[in-house]
Amino acid sequence: MRQVAATELPTRWGVFRALGFERQSLGKRSPETAIVLVLGEPSGRVPLVRIHSQCITGDVLRSLRCDCGEQLELAMQAIAAEGSGLLIYEQQEGRGIGLMAKLQAYALQDEGLDTIAANHALGFEADCRDFSLPGAILNDLGIQRVRLLSNNPEKRRALANAGIVVVEQIPCEASPNPHAARYLRVKKQSMGHTLSFV
Questions:
Q1: Given 129, 130, 156, 157, the catalytic residue
Q2: Is 127 a catalytic residue?
Q3: Which of 29, 127, 156, 185 is catalytic?
């Protein structure tokens, strides 16, 4: 893994340092990449950290089929309110299956399959993401303890496997909408996400 870029990124939540990381993985033609947005000096305390997987439909197009765009905004707001923290934004679209396969999975969901069954029908696992890169990045930045903004237990496990202590896991929960209700139910009931709605 190596850091390939560092620049300033002004946003509506404040001016962040944007760090670019990449890692070449065995069997993959292109490297894994992540952008890390750093606000303030998080190494001096136990920082808020959000690990966020790219979601063009939710983050950019503001689709209501998922909660990704809202989670991204909630995380940016929380980090800004604290005055420091990190957002690690990974290129793992569609739980790691890519944008075109995600759209195919959406079409299968339109026919009645849930998100897991749709992925399986396309020959993928329920979640193909690998969260080891964020742990490697935090180690590289000298951050050993974090407060994790996440509902996903896999992210906490991945950080623990990298030697990062998750002092606290803080919910990052968007208000449910009718278009995302089934998707969120599957995340809670089948994937173990800590969501408060019933």
A1: 129
A2: yes
A3: 127
Q: What global pTM score does this model have? A: 0.89
Taking CB atoms within 8 Å and a gap of at least 24, the contacts of 135-139 are 135/159, 135/161, 135/162, 135/163, 135/164, 136/1, 136/23, 136/162, 137/1, 137/21, 137/34, 137/36, 137/88, 138/49, 138/86, 138/88, 138/162, 138/164, 139/163, 139/164
pLDDT digits (tens, 9 = 90+) for 140-163: 999 999 999 998 888 989 999 999
Nearest of 29, 64, 34 to residue 49 by alpha carbon: 34
Taken in order of first residue, the domains within the chain and their CATH numbers are: 2-92+129-189 (3.40.50.10990)
Report the distance separating Cα 23 and Cα 97, nearest Å: 18
